[in-house]
Each structure stands twice: as structure tokens, then as C-alpha cells.
Amino acid sequence: MSPHRTDPQLLWRSPLAALTTLAMLASSFVSPATAVKLSDGRTYFENPPRLEKASVSQNAAYASSIYSFILTIPEKAGEPLGSVLIKPEPSPDYPRFDLSDISVFEGTSRRRRPNQFAFQVTESEKEPRTITLQFDPPIPPGRTITIDIRAFYNPGASGVYLYGVTAFPPGEKPYGQFLGFGRIHIYSVFDGSFFP
């Protein structure tokens, strides 16, 4: 007998068996939750995205370059990816990003691809060079994406530059999950650090 089929005589003779059978029947109709929402309306990731890697196409000081951030949204994230915030850590020098030249595509190819996801980009007025990409529609779980941002030029000083990456689910009150820092190494011929 299939465990999901009920025998009326079994239900009558054994209340425990009846409860067990009803529980099994109920579980067969439960679909995986796709939204994790608190009572106050906040949405959050059950398993947050991961920052896999940050890299730069040209690591020479003052060079025009592409900054790449690779993120994975787990199958069991519980929510799609609604937006991503990228914030340079304070330093005396920053790259200057071209906000009109951003591409978001699926995969981790080293060769830049055309944009595959629709988004709006904004730069913070309070914290210049901190940018937010708002995806519309949100990117579903189970994807690995690359965010490519062109910089007009790299910082002029050699060193390690940190970029904090925070992911948000969609919703009116999304709870941001800090994914870590992308580390970008810049080398300069002027201070002898060009060859790492």
C-alpha cells in the first residue's frame, strides 16, 4: 500500500496511525517556501549569496580597467537577489567608475559578455563611489553572476583596495547581508611595486 493512501479501517483502529498518515498527506502538498518574511515585513535570505571573487582586468595604477565581482545565489537562498551594494572602503585614492558602463551576466567567464539582467544603478550622495544595482526582475536562486564595472582609471597609489559587497532580497524592507570584501591589488611603476 502506498504511504499516501488512507485505509478507513486503519484510521478507525489506530489514532496514532491516523495522525501519522495525515501528517504524511499534508507534507506531500507543501511546496518549498520562496519567501522568507518577518512579521514586521522585513525579507531576508535563508542562505545568503556568496562573494566568490573580485578581480580587475588591469592592475596597473591609473589604467582603465574592468572591476569584476562574482556572486553565487544558492539554490536554497529562500529569496531571489533583489539588489547589490558595492562600497569602497575609505582610502586616500579611489577608482572613478563609469556608471553607464556596467554589465551583469550569468557565469564566470573572463571575457566580458553583454548585459543579461535588467537593473537600475544609483550612486550614494552621502558616500561617493558607493553604488547600488537594483535588479528588475530579481535574479532567482541557483545562479552565479558576474558584475562588471568599468573604471575610467585605477587608483594612482599601489596597494590593496577593499570593496565591501552587500546583497539584499527584494521587498519593501529588505535585510542586507554583508558578503565580505573584494580585494583588489593595484601596482605602480613609480614606487617599484609594479611586479608583484
- Span from first to last CA? 69 Å
At CATH level 3, the topology is Immunoglobulin-like
Number of E strands: 11
Total number of helical segments? 2
Output the radius of gyration: 24 Å
What is the annotated CATH architecture?
Sandwich
β-sheet strand percentage: 35-45%
Tell me roughly what share of residues is in helical segments. Answer: 10-25%
Number of domains: 1
Shape: globular
User: How confident is the prediction overall: mean pLDDT?
Assistant: 81
List the uncertain runs: 1-13, 15-34
* Spatial strand arrangement across the major sheet: 6-7-4-9-11
What kind of sheet is the major sheet? 5 strands, antiparallel
Structural class: mainly beta
- The helix-strand sequence is HHEEEEEEEEEEE
Q: What is the top-level CATH class?
A: Mainly Beta
Signal peptide: 1-35
Keywords: Signal
Organism: Oscillatoriales cyanobacterium SpSt-418
Protein name: DUF2808 domain-containing protein
Descriptive terms for the model:
196 residues; mainly beta; Immunoglobulin-like; 5-stranded antiparallel beta sheet; 4-stranded antiparallel beta sheet; 2 helices; 10% helix; DUF2808 domain-containing protein; signal; DUF2808
Blueprint (SSEs and pairs):
Blueprint: H1 8-13, H2 15-28, E1 42-43, E2 50-56, E3 65-73, E4 81-88, E5 96-106, E6 119-123, E7 131-139, E8 143-153, E9 159-168, E10 173-174, E11 177-186
Parallel strand pairs: 1-10
Antiparallel strand pairs: 2-3, 3-8, 4-7, 4-9, 5-8, 6-7, 9-11
